[in-house]
């Protein structure tokens, strides 16, 4: 067993211990609860914890399978996220072919390029080539009604749910001196600091939150975000042994990823408000859709990828 | 042979449901009724040939066993494959729409109801290709409600299928499809056909989600 595999098993077990604690807490609260009065907050909490069990197990198995496992997992997440996103965008029958291409050609190709480690291509394929070519396919059908809105929203969906998400498994491709085959752990690091930072931001925001960042749009407060980012930095420093960043570097990277992710969450809140929905879909019990689950990771991934590449990769 | 065919029909049914789930993540929204076995006529909007398989796919197994879609014989008997899927997988009640045939569709429908089956029907009669939510309903729904007043008539809105698989396209788009079941309606004593049909149409179009429909 390689050192990386051992680390993955330790991290998964660590996550399981946290989940056992959370499940235990929920069951205790449930037992103390009067069975006749329903408690929706507690029930939501329990469904969420159950979904987390599933997610940790899935990510753990994917990591143990290695690069291919992680790429397949994120490709499916991209597919589900793109489906949620494009369900809510403006489109016409004239876009049918370009949307089909987005799902069945652009998305798989992006992940194939990541798998083949063609860094020069997967960082520009969607921002440049899909951006230029898909509108041609839509324009050929001749319907100009809301044309710019249609192609722009489709491109937004691809950038968010395919390009940005694919940069999470692309972290494995980064070539860092003395870090070798361990770069798969960067995926764990990113997902862990961002998700735990979000969780603690919610926790602290409920207790200490005073000044809202975007009133009328998101419940996030400056106090909550500050505590969340601080916690993410602390967690980053604690698990710095799985990264090539060193303790201070890991804290800084965790802080940057977590902060961008939280503001990304506000962007998604604005889109959902614009489209009049509360969640992107109902596919993950208690959490809403895949985009709801991934939102901060989506925003953090490109920043994290390029910072790592710029400062550490050779 | 018949055993083999019914086995193949069950496998095909599973595959259709899996395919519907994988592509559209089709989801039932039980707004007005609970998913419990009860004799019902699910009446639905019709924009795509995939409407009926979608409703069929979201019904829980206990309900699906007793449900029979009412469908056009000319469509479902056209090829051997369709003649297998329509009558054997979906257990359709087939109606002959040709004007020269005096098929008495209502007799077949009432016979199916008297057997205890639930039905899926599309009261617009044809696929709706226009911009309006619904085409005017045909009289069938009213006649059913009048002849079998105990049966619940359940409005069932299928959202998004006209974008997922519009007429003339070959590749289905994987967008999320939602099937919304509303509160059941019945023909009121003394209610005229037109009044009932417009009430039924409103009950159905009211279920249309604000977005993504």
How would you characterize the overall build of this protein?
The complex is a heterodimer of chains A (314) and B (213). With 314 residues, chain A is mostly helical. The radius of gyration of chain A is 20 Å and the shape is globular. The model of chain A has no long low-confidence stretch (mean pLDDT 90). In chain B, helix 1 packs across helix 2 and helix 1 packs across helix 5. By secondary structure, chain B is an alpha/beta fold. The model of chain B has no long low-confidence stretch (mean pLDDT 88). Chain B has a 7-stranded mixed beta sheet with strand order 1-7-6-2-5-3-4, with helices on both faces. At the A-B interface, helix 3 and helix 4 of A face loops of B.
Question: In terms of topology, how is this protein built?
Answer:
The complex is a heterodimer of chains A (314) and B (213).
Chain A (H helix, E strand, L loop, with lengths): L2 H30 L7 H26 L1 H21 L8 H20 L3 H4 L2 H15 L7 H20 L17 H25 L13 H17 L7 H30 L14 H22 L3
Chain B lengths: L1 H23 L2 E4 L9 E5 L6 H8 L2 H4 L2 E6 H4 L3 H10 L3 E3 L9 H10 L3 E4 L18 H8 L4 E8 L1 H4 L13 E4 L11 H13 L8
């Amino acid at each position: 067993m390689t050192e990386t595999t051992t680390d993955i098993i330790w991290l998964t077990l660590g996550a399981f211990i946290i989940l056992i604690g959370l499940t235990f807490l929920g069951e205790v609260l449930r037992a103390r609860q009067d069975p006749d009065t329903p408690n929706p907050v507690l029930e939501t909490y329990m469904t969420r914890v159950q979904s987390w069990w599933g997610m940790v197990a899935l990510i753990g198995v994917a990591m143990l399978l290695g690069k291919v496992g992680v790429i397949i997992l994120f490709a499916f997440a991209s597919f589900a996220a793109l489906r949620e996103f494009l369900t809510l965008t403006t489109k016409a029958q004239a876009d049918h072919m370009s949307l089909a291409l987005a799902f069945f050609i652009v998305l798989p190709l992006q992940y194939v390029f990541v798998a083949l480690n063609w860094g020069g291509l997967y960082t520009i394929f969607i921002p440049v080539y899909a951006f230029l070519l898909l509108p041609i396919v839509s324009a050929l059908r001749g319907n100009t009604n809301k044309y710019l809105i249609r192609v722009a929203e489709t491109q937004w969906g691809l950038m968010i749910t395919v390009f940005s998400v694919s940069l999470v498994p692309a972290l494995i491709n980064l070539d860092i001196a003395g870090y070798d085959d361990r770069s798969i752990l960067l995926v764990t690091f990113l997902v862990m600091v961002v998700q735990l930072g979000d969780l603690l931001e919610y926790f602290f925001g409920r207790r200490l939150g005073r000044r809202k960042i975007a009133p009328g749009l998101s419940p996030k407060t400056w106090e909550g975000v500050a505590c969340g980012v601080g916690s993410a930095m602390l967690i980053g420093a604690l698990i710095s042994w799985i990264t090539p960043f060193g303790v201070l570097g890991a804290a800084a990277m965790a802080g940057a990823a977590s902060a961008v992710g939280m503001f990304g969450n506000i962007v998604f809140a604005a889109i959902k408000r614009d489209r009049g929905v509360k969640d992107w879909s109902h596919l993950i019990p208690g959490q809403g859709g895949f985009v709801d689950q991934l939102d901060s990771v989506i925003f953090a991934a490109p920043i994290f990828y390029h910072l790592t590449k710029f400062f550490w990769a050779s | 042979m018949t055993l083999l065919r019914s086995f193949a029909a069950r496998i095909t049914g599973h595959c259709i449901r899996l395919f519907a789930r994988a592509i559209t993540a089709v989801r039932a929204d039980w707004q007005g009724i609970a998913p419990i076995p009860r004799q019902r006529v699910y009446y639905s909007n019709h924009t795509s040939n995939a409407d009926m398989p979608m409703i069929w796919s979201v019904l829980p197994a206990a309900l699906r066993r007793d449900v029979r879609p009412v469908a056009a014989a000319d469509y479902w008997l056209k090829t051997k494959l369709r003649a297998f899927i329509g009558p054997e997988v979906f257990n359709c009640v087939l109606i002959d729409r040709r004007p020269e045939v005096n098929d008495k569709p209502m007799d077949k429908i009432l016979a199916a109801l008297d057997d205890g089956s639930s039905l899926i029907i599309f009261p617009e009669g044809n696929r709706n290709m226009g911009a309006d939510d619904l085409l005017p309903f045909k009289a069938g729904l009213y006649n059913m409600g009048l002849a079998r007043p105990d049966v619940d008539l359940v409005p069932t809105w299928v959202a998004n299928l006209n974008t997922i698989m519009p007429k003339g396209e070959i590749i289905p788009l994987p967008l999320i499809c939602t099937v919304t079941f509303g509160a059941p309606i019945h023909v009121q004593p003394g209610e005229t056909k037109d009044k009932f049909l417009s009430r039924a149409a409103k009950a159905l179009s009211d279920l249309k989600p604000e977005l993504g429909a």
